[in-house]
Amino acid sequence: MKFSLFTLFSATALAVVSATPLAPRDVYVPPVLYPHNGTVWSVGQRHNVTWDTSDPPVNITNKIGRIMLRKGGLTTPVILEENFSILLGRIEVTVPWVEDGSDYQVVLFGDSGNFSPLFTITGA
Prior knowledge:
Residues 1-19 form the signal peptide. It comes from Mycena venus. The structure is a single chain. Helix content is 15%, strand content 43%. It is mostly beta strands. The strands form two sheets. Strands 2, 4, 5, 7, 8 and 9 form a six-stranded mixed beta sheet that branches. A three-stranded antiparallel beta sheet has the order 1-3-6, with no helix packed on it. It has a single domain (25-122), classed as Immunoglobulin-like (Sandwich).
C-alpha cells in the first residue's frame, strides 16, 4: 500500500509541476567595456570592471554576477568578485597575484560568460 500511495503522490506532483507555465526568460549578454585592449593592470591595484547595461531584457534568467580571470584562452579558478547584480554595470576588483602576461581577460558571468578584450597584468 505504501508503494501505491508514493506512486500516486509522485504522479500528482509531476502533473502539477508540468502544468505550471514558466515565464519566458531572456539570456542577457552585456558586453564588457573595461578592461579593454591596451589596458595594463598591476598586481594589488583596484579597478572597476565595467559592462554595458543600456538595454537589458525584461526577464533575465540569472541576475547574479561573477567575474573570473582568464589567461591564455582558459578561464582560471580565480574569482575577482561575485554575488552582485548584473545590472550594476560596474564592480571594483583587486588585481590578484598572478604571473605577468598580456593574454588576460575578465569573464563576466550572469546568464552567460562575456569575455573582455585581451589586456596585460604586470607586477608579479
